[in-house]
Design goal:
With 222 residues, the protein is of the alpha/beta class. 36% of the residues lie in helices and 23% in strands. The protein has 8 helices and 10 strands. Helix 1 crosses helix 8 and helix 6 crosses helix 7.
Amino acid sequence: MKTIGMLTIGQSPRNDILPELKSILGEGYAVLEAGALDDLTLKDIENIKIAPDDYVLVSRMRDGREIKITKRFVLNLLQDKLNELEADGVRLTIIMCTGKFPVFDSKGLVVTPSEILKGVLEGTLKKGRLGVIYPAEEQLSGAKSSFGREGVEVYADHISPYEAEDELGELTERLGEQSLDLILLNCFGFDSNMKKVIAEKTGVPVIQSNSVVARVLKELAG
């Protein structure tokens, strides 16, 4: 049985994500989880200072509570947990976040989803309007530089994947007014239910980040 490391920027286990990922992977794969914040408390996280120019990331605690952290805070913690996974024999690890990350020191393969998703978008939408859904308002300012290109206009919006299910109807209404050609759910916490609702209400194809990357993982694991 092949083992895949799943490294969240929050706390493990990620019972909200793992069932869907495992259903895509199918039989024959073991999953070893770790979280960058596993050894920290909520008070530790609440003490993180977020500056206006920080790269903000959104994840959740073990109890399901949404948290916001900065990339500079979490990078070394991710590397430490990656080292632990690889000490246990893992040679294929996914960083369970769609943010941009540097190259990690590794004995094996480390999958960072943002590059995979960018390739899918560029190979799919040659021109038109792209909707990008983020988990936090603070992230919207980077949408055009991250996803815009010649011939592709970007509309960015946001909704919490953990605490704002009642706002989904309002989001779909806004999306429906934008004449979009494709929508990206740009967070690993966005699930298949959100994809289904948005696709049905807007009539626009929707890319669910975690399911796309799970299929790449399956190919890499062999």
